[in-house]
Specification:
With about 140 residues, the protein is mainly alpha-helical. The protein is built from four helices and no strands.
């Protein structure tokens, strides 16, 4: 049963991560997609396990709850990555000044985000293990 759930969640998270990649591929580095895929995988597995099953099962796995959680996580990642391009000259100059300040903080930001992503991943994995342990 765990193997079926694992394969179902892996398939769903790959599809959702690929959809996220198609939407935001020109704006984000490849490592962000890998991190997003890991978070979508772990989050959809944990969320799908903890949601009550109200839909019919497919191949004895409640895949709809996994799909809903994966889509919500994919939507969150997509909305976070959407950026509006500057529209005028002054807005472009302001954007360049902002980008210069942003580069100064980029290293610290990536370190903090990597720690947060690892923390979320381990929390999701702990939720999966806890669910199977108390089932």
């Amino acid at each position: 049963m765990i193997l079926r759930q694992f394969i179902t969640v892996l398939f769903i998270s790959i599809l959702v991560t690929f959809g996220y990649y198609l939407i935001a591929r020109k704006k984000e580095p490849l490592t962000k997609f890998i991190y997003a895929g890991l978070i979508i995988f772990a989050g959809s597995w944990a969320g799908g396990l903890w949601l009550k099953a109200v839909w019919p099962m497919i191949f004895r796995v409640n895949s709809i709850s996994y799909l809903i959680v994966a889509l919500v996580l994919g939507l969150v990642f997509t909305l976070i990555s959407m950026r509006r391009p500057p529209s005028g000259r002054y807005e472009t100059l302001e954007k360049l000044e902002y980008m210069q300040k942003e580069k100064e903080l980029q290293k610290l930001t990536y370190t903090v985000l990597n720690v947060l992503i690892c923390f979320l991943f381990f929390i999701f994995i702990a939720a999966v293990i806890t669910r199977y342990f108390f089932e």
